[in-house]
């Protein structure tokens, strides 16, 4: 079943190649392939047995496949050149992203983790908007690669020590605590760049701003979660003693990242950069939950990752809707959009509320549980990290206020509200956000048994 | 696919008791996995017990009304004790 999930995008690639030069057919084939992958992932999710603590289909992550569908749909009109190669890169990226989450071998995980960089590099570097896209693509590639080299060294040490890179062997392998600490640092460098944590975060705003809409969607929706997954699946599960030892380091860096990125967001003038920096803050909140050593923290951070993976791409879509019309992302030009784009304003408002983690949204469930768990680990740092919630409200409301309200901007002529395609791209994300917020147990139930297996019992 | 009319209660799964993590041979991976799964299942069963005690306490509170301080005391004590002891902890021991 998992194999079908991996193969379907590849079949989509073949379909796109066989579509010849008909770009309309290519887009339809790519969309159909992504939709089929999404449906298959839902079938896997439905077949998941929550009462069994073991590997079944393992990680049925429907949001990976949702974002692929949304990404293909969102770039329907915006990609004008090299459509075939863009769709091929996108579908290959989909396969690799699914592979990262489903492989049970450490080395395969590393290979897929790194392989994701290549199509992403192409998507940012070729189909980005401005000249700076080359700089952003290189920065994205080199930052992640440099961090991952240390992870490769750690994997080699693990292989020579344990004799295997199979996850189920590693999960029961006994590595000494001193060695675990060194290995943990290797993994940490790689995942810290991906989260991103301060001071390894610079690639994110650049990549987000310069990438096309689909690139931003995949980056915000899925790629940032690779780090959280890596931490949970490898750092915490295979190196638990080191994870407990380094928890204060992670907490300190995460809290600094939350506060710094939130204040930096308030200073930005580019709409995409605002959302990119807000992603930094939210992903560091998930780290507080992951390293809290509590079931609430881990499940909360997983839900927050899912929620952020829905809301952040939606915000990017809202911003690019404006960009498609006015070809500027500078905040000072936008004002009074409610008057001639009321539907866009409603959608942007609802997703802003989600970003702020207002109750009824999925982010609220995630953040509440995360902070509940983190408070048990370290109350002082959690309170400081909670400032992130206040600051996210500050920049969220500030951004919405500046764009939607006030008198109509003298720089912009009315260009029409969002069209049906854009609305249909946003609607499933809105639906998901509210479903996860109102019925979180749908998503939490499968996590209960697995989440608890990651934790370390407290010293009595 | 089951409908409202055809749905039946899932069969109650019984799991064999296996040696715990303290008793198991460290070189036997399968036994370690089984012991871990057993610990997690036991933890969640205990958590469910606490939930059931809470439900009984709620029911008692509703039925007893103003007498709940005296009549439901035993359930309240049981619940207070259970939320401290019946926690989902996990199988890893911190060194």
From TrEMBL, chain A:
InterPro entries: NADH_Q_OxRdtase_chainM/4 (IPR010227), NADH_UbQ_OxRdtase (IPR003918), ND/Mrp_TM (IPR001750). The keyword Transmembrane applies. GO terms for cellular component: membrane. The keyword Secreted does not apply. One of its GO terms (molecular function) is ubiquinone binding. Keywords: Membrane, Transmembrane, Transmembrane helix. It holds the Pfam family Proton_antipo_M. Its main location: membrane. It is a multi-pass membrane protein. It is found in: Membrane. The chain crosses the membrane at residues 29-48, 85-102, 108-128, 140-162, 182-204, 211-232, 244-263, 275-295, 301-323, 343-360, 380-401, 422-444. It comes from the Eukaryota. GO terms for biological process: ATP synthesis coupled electron transport; electron transport coupled proton transport. Residues 105-385 form the NADH:quinone oxidoreductase/Mrp antiporter transmembrane domain. PANTHER family: NADH-UBIQUINONE OXIDOREDUCTASE CHAIN 4 (PTHR43507). NCBIfam families: NDH_I_M (TIGR01972). Core subunit of the mitochondrial membrane respiratory chain NADH dehydrogenase (Complex I) that is believed to belong to the minimal assembly required for catalysis. Complex I functions in the transfer of electrons from NADH to the respiratory chain. The immediate electron acceptor for the enzyme is believed to be ubiquinone. Belongs to the complex I subunit 4 family. This is NADH:quinone oxidoreductase/Mrp antiporter transmembrane domain-containing protein. It comes from Thamnidium elegans.
TrEMBL record, chain B:
Pfam families: NDUFB10 (PF10249). It is found in: Mitochondrion inner membrane. It is a peripheral membrane protein. InterPro entries: NADH_UbQ_OxRdtase_su10, NDUFB10. One of its GO terms (cellular component) is respiratory chain complex I. It comes from the Eukaryota. Keywords: Electron transport, Membrane, Mitochondrion, Mitochondrion inner membrane, Respiratory chain, Transport. Coiled coil: none annotated. PANTHER family: NADH DEHYDROGENASE [UBIQUINONE] 1 BETA SUBCOMPLEX SUBUNIT 10, NADH-UBIQUINONE OXIDOREDUCTASE PDSW SUBUNIT. Belongs to the complex I NDUFB10 subunit family. This is NADH-ubiquinone oxidoreductase 12 kDa subunit.
